[in-house]
Design a protein that fits this description.
The protein is α/β, with parallel strands linked by helices. Helix content is 40%, strand content 23%. The radius of gyration is 21 Å and the shape is globular. The structure holds adenosine-5'-triphosphate and magnesium ion.
Length: 289
């Protein structure tokens, strides 16, 4: 990871203007940096401002106060908004709302037409993007016949065609069945391995455990951040924030309360299995000596 962030959120406050004299304050002095190649998860209770923050990352929303810089470009700079949007792409919750064309390849091409990419290059980019999400065989199909997971893959392809540096997923798997969810997670993991920066908003704590870094939001503020292991060590605090922890963390804490030798700070299922084995071996050795 290089030290130069792709995205800098600097002291951002935001409120939705409901009518002339009523504002709903949502973000309060939020600062956050997203570094190249990292996998960042944003978690928080419903209404804590995760989607509002996500929409600031590529200029869909602009701050009331503070600034968001994408590779140094201020998202307030409307003349450069296409540049910002092609660097940071967003995938939303509902796959149906993101399909704009009646043929898959036209859907993937949509964003490219907006930024004026030439026909030959457009073809290359569509090939690349559909291949990256494993949907090349569906190129000439109508997207509305696809499953939810396949539609999300097409939505991701539409973004990849723009050659972004960062992909922001706002609960992109929450409307999918378990198969569709695993499908999208596999695509996201692969993109991350190949160098793509990922920002994901999710309620699935097993997904969060895979991230490099976690940011926890509450009432429009960042209240906790760190590696998944650091964040999930705060089980009591997370409970107060109405947030879950991965099954592995819950099980480890429970076993630790009965057997203090058991490491409580585990986040992956495989770690729990390994720890059970380790503790068993220790006990066998202890009883044998
Ligand atoms: N377009 C809007 N107009 C007015 N208020 C809004 C709008 N969108 C969101 N809000 C309010 O802003 C607050 C934060 O909403 P936001 O969608 O950012 O939260 P969230 O953390 O993404 O929640 P969830 O987990 O439910 O997706 C909530 O109180 C919400 O009701
Ligand atoms: Mg949301």
């Amino acid at each position: 990871m290089s030290n130069q962030p792709i995205i800098c959120v600097e002291n951002v406050s935001f409120a939705y203007q409901v009518n002339q004299d009523q504002q709903i304050p949502v973000l309060q002095n939020v600062s956050l940096e997203v570094y190249p190649g990292e996998y960042l998860a944003i978690i928080g209770h419903n209404g804590s401002g995760k989607s509002t923050l996500s929409k600031h990352l590529n200029g869909i929303l602009t701050p009331l106060e503070g600034n968001v810089l994408v590779n140094g470009i201020n998202t307030r700079d409307k003349g450069r908004i296409h540049e910002v949007r092609s660097r940071v792409g967003m995938v939303f919750q509902n796959p149906d709302n993101q399909i704009v064309a009646t043929i898959v390849e036209d859907d993937v091409a949509f964003g490219l037409e907006n930024i004026g990419v030439f026909a030959e290059e457009m073809k290359d980019r569509i090939d690349f993007a559909l291949d990256a999400v494993g949907m090349s065989a569906f190129r000439h199909r109508p997207p509305h016949h696809l499953s939810g997971g396949q539609k999300q893959r097409i939505a991701i392809a539409g973004i990849l065609a723009m050659k972004p540096q960062c992909l922001v997923l706002d609960e992109a798997t929450s409307m999918l069945d378990s198969y569709g969810r695993q499908d999208i997670l596999a695509v996201v993991r692969k993109l991350h391995r190949e160098g793509m920066t990922i920002v994901t908003v999710t309620h699935h704590m097993s997904e969060v455990a895979e991230a490099d870094r976690v940011v926890v939001m509450e009432a429009g503020k960042v209240v906790l951040q760190g590696t998944p292991r650091e964040v999930f060590a705060h089980q009591e605090k997370l409970k107060e924030l109405h947030l879950d922890v991965p099954d592995a963390s819950r099980i480890a804490a429970l076993v630790h309360s009965e057997y203090p030798a058991f490491n409580p700070n585990l986040i992956h299922n495989e770690e729990v299995v390994a720890e059970v084995t380790r503790v068993q071996i220790r006990e066998v050795e202890a009883s044998g000596s």
